[in-house]
Known about the structure:
single chain; alpha/beta; six-stranded mixed β-sheet
Amino acid sequence: MLDVREIRKTFNAGTPNEVRSLQGVDLALDEGSFVIIIGTNGSGKSTLLNAVAGTFFVDSGSINLSGQNVTRWPEHRRALMIGRVFQNPFSGTAPNLSIAENLALAARRGLTRGLGWALNPRLNQQMRDTVHGLGMGLENRLDNLIGNLSGGQRQALTLLMATWLKPKLLLLDEHTAALDPKSADQVIQLSDQIIQRDKLTTLMVTHSMHQAVNLGDRLIMMHRGQILHDFRGAEKQRLRVDDLMRRFEDVRRADLLDETAAEMLQRKYV
Length: 270
């Protein structure tokens, strides 16, 4: 369904600020799989999502989505097949439009825009029923500006917008990191509910070890622009938070050893 082959991306190549963000990443997702991605800061996890979404073109390698080579497709063209929720609750929505108008835009993704025509009685009732499922009482506030809502409310609606048309691929980029614990739990439960109900193929980046072990059917750990571990099936189900913490500690020790060896080598030739 998603087939990423040997993708590489270097930012500021040939300068003192060069960053090799992706170094030959291979990743294949079956339709309906729910994959969690974890890693230290700078490991390449969000960069991988951006590469798949088309935020930038990769330097080399290929990205195939639903049988089509999208490697050189611009972001707006890929967006017809991809739903995405960002870390910032204020991304992904139009703050000066109402809840209903934002949802109408999501319902007409890829079609000719025109809110007056889009907000018909049938769609209004569908919106009311769907928003009622959030359990936030927003079904009676569809005319309110979405920019006046709390972060948790807005992120829940952004998730509805991203999944309204059942995208081929859903990308969740630390979409609860900026929320308070209660709101984060609500949005995570909603995310899991929608993903399981609609059998959405999903890539989700998180820093939460609890989310990593409790969600999804596969867990990928990235480090230095590469996939370090790939847990799936029974191995994924057996994982606990302590297991992941030990893996991160192993990575930290290895990095310290690499840095120490580099310093010793440098001193030898100075």
